[in-house]
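User: Can you fold this complex?
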Amino acid sequence: MTAESIRVRGLVQGVGFRPTVWRLARACGLRGDVRNDGEGVLIRVCGNIAGDDAGVNGFLTRLREECPPLARIDTIERCPIADPQALADLAHRQDFVILESAATAVHTGIVADAATCAACVAEIRDPADRRHRYPFTNCTHCGPRLSIVAGIPYDRARTSMAAFPMCPDCAAEYKDPADRRFHAQPNACPVCGPKVWLQDAAGCVLDPTALDAEDAIAAASRLLAEGRILAIKGIGGFHLACDATDPDAVAELRRRKRRYAKPLALMARDLDVIRGYCRVTGRDAALLSGPAAPILLLDRVGSRGAERDGERPRPLAPDVAPGQTTLGVMLPYSPIHHLLLADWDRPLVMTSGNLSEEPQCIDNADALGRLGQLADHLLLHDRAILNRVDDSVVRVMAGEARLLRRARGFAPTPLPLPPGFEAAPPLLALGGELKNTFCLVRDGQAILSQHLGDLEDAKTAREYERTLALYLDLFQVVPEALAVDLHPDYRSSLIGRDRAARDGLPLIGVQHHHAHLASTLADNGWPLDAGPVLGILLDGLGYGSDGTLWGGEFLLGDYLDFERVAHLKAVAMPGGIRAILEPWRNLYAHLESAGGWDAWRARFAGLEPIERLDGKPLEILGTLIARGLNAPLSSSTGRLFDAVAAALGVGGEVLTYEGQAAIALESLAAVAMDRVGEGYPFARLTGPAGELVLDPTPLWGALITDISRGCPPEEIAAAFHVGLATALSALALDLTSRCGISTVALSGGVFQNRLLLESVTRSFEVAGLRVLLQRQVPANDGGVSLGQAAAAAARVLRGISGA
Amino acid sequence: MSHGSGGRAMAQLIGELFQRYLDHELLTLGNDQALFMPPPGRMVMSIDGHVISPLFFPGGDIGSLAVHGTINDVAMSGARPLYLAAGFILEEGFPLGDLARIVESMAQAANAAGVPVVTGDTKVVERGKGDGVFITTTGIGVVPEGILISGDRAEPGDVILVSGSMGDHGVAILSKRENLGFETEIRSDSSALHELVAAMIAAVPDIHCLRDPTRGGLATTLNELAHQSGVGMQIREDAIPVRPEVAAACELLGLDPLYVANEGKLIAICPPDKAERLLDAMRAHPLGTESAIIGEVVEDPHRFVQMETDFGGSRIVDWLAGEQLPRIC
Ligand SMILES: [Fe+3]
Ligand SMILES: [Mg+2]
Ligand SMILES: [Zn+2]
Ligand SMILES: [Zn+2]
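Assistant: Here's the predicted assembly.
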């Protein structure tokens, strides 16, 4: 008899991998066993016929082809079994069996929450099925994971399903390797599982029959159709929902939630409903329908050349996404949503269940307290959400799906680190301040937390520490070094400093934009020793190595180190944080920096943007700038966008969400990109350290002149985009050829701007450069922790310690 | 000292000024020390160096500030301040007229407070080696029997009060120094709080903490107290008194009034059942008419000071490493 062991690595635990192995091995007539262990899955087989290699080959081919939907095979290694004891064991096997895991060694990876699979959806729709209309239906291929887990090993006792002992039918499914629910920890049915109910804001439970509905979800659907606002408890949090085509309901929701401008996400029953409002490509359809079921930003029908295409958008409440050319849409991802939307041929608003700025609710009592004031009714259930997991957000840009927010459906799936990082010690990178995630390094993999949010918020800051403790436990990581941002006041940096002091660990400071660069490299599998690239890192701001604020950076570097070879000209932010909220301050500062405000006012007296500014208390702001008083200099690209938006009078007087002015500018420019020629010019200067400086002074002359000539604002917005893209590319091309570099990496929140990203990318590709963009983690600060982790790991591996 | 007779002449002039304005019997004796009988009870002592630009500002000057600041530091223990000592460091060439104004203002402040300056010292430094004038004041006082007020005594459930509007002093100083020319003149709140404290103690002897939120403002001081006591604090933005003109100036300057210095305000922390009585006593005093309850002490291993915002959210009001540096991306 010949026998061999087959080692499978990848995402192979807790995803129905062993039953698939079991089923295929039997189908191929193999004898042997399969088990989980610390490295993944170990299969031992012997053919029925001695030396039947073809049987094993066939089995492995089918295993790859029929890999369960949530599993991912990274590597398969085969090796003959020589150990006599093992051979004797196998010789006794008459069959193929699943062995229990040796609990001690298991690194049971917790996988991401997954959208309800087609088989489960079919069951809840089938009146004859025992799970007909059951809102907690799930199986090995779908359902909650991260959102319900409290610790390891991942089994029912350590999830919020512990409160629901399985009935005999469910237990039988759970034990049967041939069943789709074999070892599905959250397995449940109407007999034994969680229940859903509807109540009003005062806490009174509503009888669905009083609303002529067959159950609570049907009643909720009816209330939505009547224009009510509902709080709906889902998988990783609460949504606030209303009819997206009802202008009054949407306006009321915005008023109550105090979210006045930021676009609201939608959920639609199926792709056909979405197609009534948005253009959906084949790739879009696959993204929407995949197990991650993210919010996908799609172009609205009619947003670009509707007349030409003959497309007619269906009506949507105007307040859903004011001034946007895109909509954020998702498909139902839990049975609750499928049942709720069954009768809806139009989308629902499904926005996070919170007051603006706060993290969304996850427990019933909190929901009653906080959402009771925002919603007319609450659709609740008794399965606890242990971890908040927000909806993920994806946008297709430059030919690929790119994550803008990585949470449900993606976290905590580990990302393999590039070649060279295999020996990296366990690390913890604490991330940024806004859109925070943290990142663990273990066994050559990066494990990013789900999007946690803004750490200035007290609830989020508490959740951060709790989630961190959970991840350290789930993934059994004992960090040997910590990585933090250089900003002295980031809460994540404070926590890192405290932990490092408490545990006596080295603390590695990673500059913000270097982290963006390293994140892009890691995201693209750039090997540790593959040499430097030119990074173009554009964002709002980050703390620079020189103690000033950066945000328009050309860094020549690798994981280990960087040189700041060029940057946007530093311009004051008069009033510090107020300049981030009030774009006009940046317009003033930019004009002051580009020849002086008095000259502009004299030259363009009476012109609208000049008049608007003239009504502001500019004398005091001028003093702040002149005296360097709460007017920090910053090379921020975000503030340049703000200034241009202010010149055009778009994006709001006081911003209510991050990136608001830049997004307004992008929406405006989208329709005119092919109508403008070269775009506005930038100048080049040499900075104090010999670095190149991109100076927007000439841009302002051209832009203000265009406004005075009555040029349409969309063309001005487009000429700004084109001009910036051209200036960035030209500078980058000079730098790459001077330094002999052939690869460019683009990151930072500004590169969530599709127009800019695509035009810059295009010009590099035309020039024959390789372009690295973020894909699996966001280009915004949600991706910073990965970069910190990679940069810190590189330093430790190369023996360069300390901050 | 290498500046010879100029310095000596100046020191002599100062001596005369002090004799004229600060005419307490102990000082006028002309000894290098003040001699007095210690009263019974626990004594407290505090020292504060005063370095400020501009020297004269709406609502006060460095002289009155040097008196108020030290009286307040003594009073925040619950003590009755008894005596002050003052040390001057003058830059050569400092205008004597200005010095006279400062000493006179100091004397007035001390007289009004009933806390005399009983010993003093003056040094003159070369031109360029000082910034006009620096004043260091030391105060001593005596704590009444049975009073135990300390920064480590805040307990979960305790109530947090402030004696009036936040940020007046810092904004007044800044706008005067930078000549910002706000429409409404903002005046420093500089004042001596010991009589307010005495009235508070008379009403509620069981006050747990008192502190004047000077440099770093309310936010920094609450963080200090939270840290010392090992507790969290929960405050409400809409309960914190801020004058409209100060709020407007702060918004324009991009400053958070909670981090701006005060020189005539205090924070009090007391058990919840005594908070109303304490509030009444504070409001009955002329320096506490705008007193308010702003929040509670809570149990919190993180020792967060968190604020429920007007917006409904809950923000961490952090201890800042340095200036108010933007964190938002
Ligand atoms: Fe950033
Ligand atoms: Mg002091
Ligand atoms: Zn399923
Ligand atoms: Zn059951």
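Chain B has two domains: 4-143, 159-316. The longest helix of chain B spans residues 4-21.
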